Records
---
Amino acid sequence: QSALTQPRSVSGSPGQSVTISCTGTSSDVGGYNYVSWYRHHPGKAPKLMIYDVSKRPSGVPDRFSGSKSGNTASLTISGLQAEDEADYYCCSYAGSYPLGVFGTGTKVTVL
Amino acid sequence: EVQLVESGGGLVQPGGSLRLSCATSGFTFSAYWMSWVRQAPGKGLEWVANIKEDGSVKFYVDSVKGRFTISRDSAENSLYLQMNSLRAEDTALYYCARVGGMSTNDYWGQGTLVTVSS
């Protein structure tokens, strides 16, 4: 099972919005509404930010939103803050493959 | 508060073995699938293994099949990963995580580092 494709990096100024894409196939991202997104500060535990494409866990600010179109899912961070500077990973259910498939990861830089 | 704390990592020679542990608290351990995810140096996340609530079903990524064994102990609220025949490419930070939905890990530990080197 191949990793999902994410841009290596995106950047924005405080207060701006950034969008991270996550491209897969019809066998994973496009076939199911089970895409999740994680924020990962190096050396710390990854944190679930979005699940089931667009749902936010309790405690995650509404600055974070998720969507999907065809084989590409997206995470948008609005009102960018310094604490948002981290690595972000998408992950998708892939049907017959029994484990989750992660994306290649995107480094978000707050300028 | 949900907590997951990994332990057992360290330096091991190629071909050696290591057993990782994950102590959990703050939730009903026996009601959730659990997983191990790893991150090699400079690389992304890779889902390594899953285990069902009662331990009856287990899945592995192809690269560790036959070498790694995931297990759990509900009496101890603990998850384990027995790693045998370790290779340099197994060097990574290993995370324990609770599976909260379809291919979704909702809580993670901080990880334990495994280094395979002579």
Note: The interface with chain A takes residues 4, 35, 37, 44-50, 59-61, 95, 97, 100-111 of chain B (CB under 8 Å).
---
Amino acid sequence: DAGITQSPRHKVTETGTPVTLRCHQTENHRYMYWYRQDPGHGLRLIHYSYGVKDTDKGEVSDGYSVSRSKTEDFLLTLESATSSQTSVYFCAIRETPGLAGSYEQYFGPGTRLTVT
Amino acid sequence: GENVEQHPSTLSVQEGDSAVIKCTYSDSASNYFPWYKQELGKRPQLIIDIRSNVGEKKDQRIAVTLNKTAKHFSLHITETQPEDSAVYFCAASGTTSGTYKYIFGTGTRLKVLA
């Protein structure tokens, strides 16, 4: 599982409330990603990070912010949750390239978020 | 922007038959093409990948082929088994300004009928 954990694993919240999801990794990988998964849309990139305090937007970043103050933690925040943000959220890491130059990406277990 | 199209969206095959899933990518800078298998309620799991300097790669019953000129890549599963039933995602990745992003297809639900 590449040492990736996500918390919480399940959350139900009300429209308009702030929500923070946490991704934690134990293997010092530089790149971390947040995706959302919805039926018919596959996995869509929300934000990603290429180092501490280095982040960038993905294709569906509106309504989301991220922070990475430590290598091991990548936080995703919904400032004011909406029903359209009901989804399964996956964190992922990209392995730090070795001599052969690895490009492999591994996923965390996911967080199921319901906004009522 | 970058896009990956995946077909078909659903695929049913008889046990023992072969299954083929196809993807097309738009970004010519893409140089890495992984395939993921996702079982119900689980995380996507990497099953095979290919880099742009290789045309084909095999791992037991699964293989991936890449046609860079046409920007096509495909997943081939031979001798399908019921445990192959899952959703499969293709993705394309490349370096843009020194960062690495992955664009995913919308998935193929494979059903292997016993």
Note: The interface with chain B takes residues 31, 33, 35, 40-45, 48, 50, 56, 58-59, 90, 94, 103-110 of chain A (CB under 8 Å).
---
Amino acid sequence: DTGVSQNPRHKITKRGQNVTFRCDPISEHNRLYWYRQTLGQGPEFLTYFQNEAQLEKSRLLSDRFSAERPKGSFSTLEIQRTEQGDSAMYLCASSPLWDSSRGETQYFGPGTRLLVL
Amino acid sequence: LAKTTQPISMDSYEGQEVNITCSHNNIATNDYITWYQQFPSQGPRFIIQGYKTKVTNEVASLFIPADRKSSTLSLPRVSLSDTAVYYCLEGGNTGKLIFGQGTTLQVKP
């Protein structure tokens, strides 16, 4: 399977614990994105990388959240001191560099569903 | 805040053609229009993308008028498996996609 993969698919944790999610993008894609989705809402942008560089972070990404893409390949999203409000689906997506002839197309992984008790 | 406006929900029956229209009142010159489909507990899946006029692929058609203020996703002969949420988005080289609530399509037998 050459699509975007995410691990784990599900995570249950207690409030105050730290969690880390991993995303493996499509291998030739330079850009990698993280989104969060709560029930009944569309995905909300969190942050994105172009190769190793983190180019944009949303205000949703509080200081408890950190994302890395150390070698420009896979990425991790860590949430420290989790809160019940962090319960959501965390989606990763990847895309090739933007090309003005075809627009932005992002390919999403299956997501990691987080439940904070 | 989503830049597009689309109906919250639509119902259809198997075998019918479904058209979902989206408003793009402030679309930028460089923005493309893209539609995604999302099933429960899955990530969104790219369906189709266009800049203007008509685009067709194996699953859908996309109609964009000359003023680009709207777009219409057309799903021919829907089946139960087309029940999903459909999102229209506009974007250029900004990196992030801005999703609205989408249109929940319910296909009935």
Note: Chain A is about 0% helix and 50% strand.
---
Amino acid sequence: QVQLEQSGADVKKPGSSVKVSCMLSGDKFGSYTVTWVRQAPGQGLEWMGGILPIFGTTDYARQFQDRVTFKADKSTTTAYMELLSLTSDDTAVYFCALGLGGTFDTWGQGTLVTVSS
Amino acid sequence: DIQMTQSPSSLSASVGDRVTITCQASQDINNYLNWYQQKPGKAPKLLIYDASNLETGVPSRFSGSGSGTDFSFTINSLQPEDIATYYCQENDNLPPITFGQGTRLEIK
């Protein structure tokens, strides 16, 4: 069974950075895309971008491209999302999701990142 | 970028009702439209892909239709476990990927 397991909740200070991991079990990355989506409290889903681990190619949403980095380690089938210069507006649940193209049929459980002084 | 307009933003219906949610794209996206269900505190779950294809294991009371710019999602015979927020998502001409604003479904 293909599953994505994300790292645990985190609390960060404004101006710091956060790194969230997303480990794939039950399969290899293959041709899958790992996408990152976040959801602020009580809000909708916001696409942050994605990575194609087989090539390491990335796409970033315009609003994040200056401060987000996606990486993937094929040997451990783990993807990472690092977000810099955190503000309170970055308080959200961050999801990774796996799929082909732009359709995502496997999701991680989500990681709550709280930014607070 | 493509904009997705989803309506209604919230909906209240009775068990057994037929429920329909619509999603309109700002430009032609062919049939590259997915529907997800998200229950409180949980990750989204893919229900419908490519506008009308039912994901494996999803009950047949869920269906989707449409192409081009206008799409709809229907639940036939609403069940209590269908309480959730539903999102459309376009995946034409990536990137970026755009989600609709969501429809919160409640039981009367």
Note: The radius of gyration of chain A is 13 Å.
